[in-house]
Amino acid sequence: MEDNKKHLWWQDGVIYQIYPRSFQDSNGDGIGDLQGIMQRLDYLQWLGITAIWISPIYPSPMADYGYDISDYIDIHPLFGSMTDFDRLLTEVHNRGMKLILDFVPNHTSDQHPWFLESKSSKENPKRDWYIWRDAKDDGSPPNNWLSVFGGSGWEWDEDTQQYYYHAFLKEQPDLNWRNPEVQEAMLSMMKFWLDKGVDGFRIDVMWHMIKDDKLRDNPPNHDYQQHMATYEQLLPYYSTDQPEVHDIVHKMRKLLDSYNERMMIGEIYLPIHKLVAYYGADNNGAHLPFNFQLLSLQWNAREIGAAIDQYEGSLPDQGWPNWVLGNHDQPRITSRVGLQQAKVAAMLLLTLRGTPTIYYGDELGMTDVPIPFEEVQDPQGLNMPDKNLSRDPARTPMQWDASDHSGFSQTKPWLRVDKSYKRINVEAQKNDSHSMLTFYKKLIALRQQEISLKAGNYVPVHADPQVISFIREAEGESRFLIVLNLSHKPCYFSPKNIHINGEVILATIPELEGEKVGNNINLSGDEGVIIKLEN
Ligand code: GLC
Question: 496 alpha carbon to ligand 1 midpoint, in Å?
């Protein structure tokens, strides 16, 4: 059985994503930094977090807020220095926690010295490090590929009279991973951080890394609707998820495996059957290809139940599952399903089989903050202003306390703080037994303490449009039945397929805890319970 195997830290743990600009400002410039993160490590430890993933902190012109890197082996002065980083890593390790860096291999900044060289002439030895092509006879781009952030994926360079490809901003030219020199250079950048003792990487847009070698046109998406990003007009059939990407992922994995217990998460937005290929043949790919289903599925228990079953059934042997409720690119869960239902979502995240990743602030029930048009920072929002696609609302400053700027900074932050901060903050919620934060803390503690929840099997019990229920169990350990009402209406759960005799040990409202339960379970809307079974 699954539970008898030794589990590694990235299987057993709870990952917490920090968006560094918005976590804690220590030097009063309105932007979060490494020293700020250091000041808040005790909080993360108190919460029960075991691994931290930090979005990019490298030197960058910040066209895409750090996802446009101009030097892979240094720290942006906004965030601090390499000395700060070394201290942070030591402090994280001293607390028994792990540190995961964000690594962006698909593209560099257009200010990266490699691109400046590549752009300088057609004969430059680094020309082939990026994807340069001639215009078509009529002067138009080499193919129809679109940029995720709007417009064509090709940018014309007047000086050398060719186009270069950028899947994201024109300030983020795509590297040519078919070139062995690029592979070697990027792997050596990863090695730099591994040698320092970093515990793993979250690999940005892993499925974009290699493109069709003939650069064929992408086919149209017949399901495109006006409200969608313009990128979605085509199916990225030839520009992403090419078979050769797995060789690259494997090379990264080989490097990681030459160290002790380092790991790799892949950022991959693909349907399940394609996603699981990123575990690699014989599990020699990514340790955790991010599973983003909960971000996009309709909040309907039957659909979610089916998706869990499909995912569980598709995992390769030894492939370890993982679940995500939010990140810096997506609307916050509270805004999507509502504050009360966000508790049910948290219970789902932390009771499913597989490593959970928590997005900073979700443990408080922070919501998407409406950013007035003139304050919008995110290029995705600025480039497609009529589509309400800005990612800023989910990137606002962490709400620590009721003081000015929510304890995030002593000065006006780079993005406005939500108006709710005097009520919704760490200080206010810490000692409130009904708060989201207390609930998260209890869920994490229970998960970490119970082997069945941390590593046991997942056994589906029931799913209808309202309710989902499953058992987590491991040999010789307590068994748990989880019942979640994903709707706002009361539900009456009387399963025929199992006999229930147990006690509620954790619930979305503490009043339910300690209740004995049998085969008739009635829940109010937005309620969820974890029942410890007697038998
Ligand atoms: C990833 C990041 C996103 C970024 C994009 C381009 O999707 O999560 O924030 O804009 O890659 O690097």
Answer: 46
DSSP state of 146: B
Q: Where along the chain do its domains lie?
A: 113-165, 368-418, 457-533
Q: Which of 64, 174, 204, 526 is catalytic?
A: 204
Give 125's DSSP letter. T
Residue with tokens 């996603």: 275
Supply φ then ψ for residue 58, to 5 degrees.
-85, 165
Q: Which helix (H) or strand (E) holds 469?
A: strand 467-473
Digit-coded pLDDT (tens) for 357-370: 999 999 999 999 99
The CATH T-level fold of domain 457-533 is: Immunoglobulin-like (2.60.40)
Which of 198, 193, 203, 201 lies closest to 89 in space, CA to CA? 198
- How would DSSP label each residue in 24-38? --SSSSSS--HHHHH
Write out residues with Cβ below 6 Å of ligand 1: 64, 67, 104, 168, 204-205, 267, 328-329
Q: How far apart are CA 37 and CA 26, in angstroms?
A: 9
pLDDT per residue over 46-72, tens digit each?
999 999 999 999 999 999 999 999 999
Identify whether 204 is a catalytic site residue: yes
Rounded CA-CA distance 260/264 in Å is: 13
DSSP assignment of 358-380 equals: EETTGGGT--PPPPPGGG---HH
Mutational test site, ligand 1, from 168, 207, 265, max ligand atoms within 8 Å of CB:
168
φ, ψ (nearest 5 deg) of residue 493: -110, 110
Q: Which residue among the candidates 267, 368, 392, 418 is catalytic per the annotation?
A: 267
Label residues 435-466 b or e (16+ Cβ within 10 Å = b): bbbbbbbbbbebbbebbbbbbbbbeebbbeeb
Q: What ligand 1 atom has the least distance to the C-alpha of 167?
A: 6
- Give the whole-angstrom CA distance, residue 108 versus residue 479: 48
Is residue 329 annotated as part of the catalytic site, yes or no?
no
Tell me the CATH class for 113-165. alpha beta
Encode pLDDT of 430-482 as tens digits: 999 999 999 999 999 999 999 999 999 999 999 999 999 999 999 999 999 99
Q: How far is the CA of 379 from the centre of ligand 1 (A)?
A: 11
Spatial distance between the Cα atoms of 531 and 535, rounded to a whole number of angstroms? 12
Ligand 1: nearest atom to the Cα of 380: 10
Please give the distance, rounded to the nearest whole angstrom, from the Cα atom of residue 204 to the centre of ligand 1: 6
Helix (H) or strand (E) holding 293: helix 293-296
| Ramachandran angles phi, psi of 165, nearest 5° | -95, 135
Strand, coil or helix: 266: strand
Q: pTM (2 decimals)? A: 0.98
